[in-house]
Specification:
The chain contains four helices and no strands. The chain is mainly α. It folds into two domains: 59 residues, Arc Repressor Mutant, subunit A; 40 residues. The chain is elongated, with a radius of gyration of 24 Å. Helix 1 packs across helix 3 and helix 2 crosses helix 3.
């Protein structure tokens, strides 16, 4: 079973991005030096570029991703509430029906 690592701190991510941005080392070299996956560091670089307005068309910024997450959560809660109300309405309609 592979070891799981705790999430990287914000300071660690910023320092890693700074190392890449100085241009002295490649993403592969920095990721190897810091002991993180190449793809992880590449994702951080791409997300930082997107947040700075230099991303690809269609990429979501960190704040947009957070907002989307919250909206999906709210949507899920509203759907559950609607189902509860439907069941309650059906129950009370059945109870108040003449016998």
């Amino acid at each position: 079973m592979p070891k799981t690592k705790p999430p990287y701190s914000k300071e660690f991510r910023v320092r890693a991005l700074d190392l890449v941005r100085t241009g002295k080392k490649t993403v592969a070299e920095v990721s190897k030096d810091l002991g993180i996956a190449h793809q992880t560091l590449s994702n951080w670089v791409r997300q930082a570029d997107t947040d700075a307005g230099r991303g690809r068309v269609g990429d979501l910024t960190t704040s947009e991703k957070a907002e989307l997450h919250e909206l999906k959560k709210e949507n899920r809660v509203l759907r559950e509430e609607r189902e509860i109300l439907k069941k309650a309405a059906a129950f009370f309609a059945k109870e108040s029906a003449p016998r």
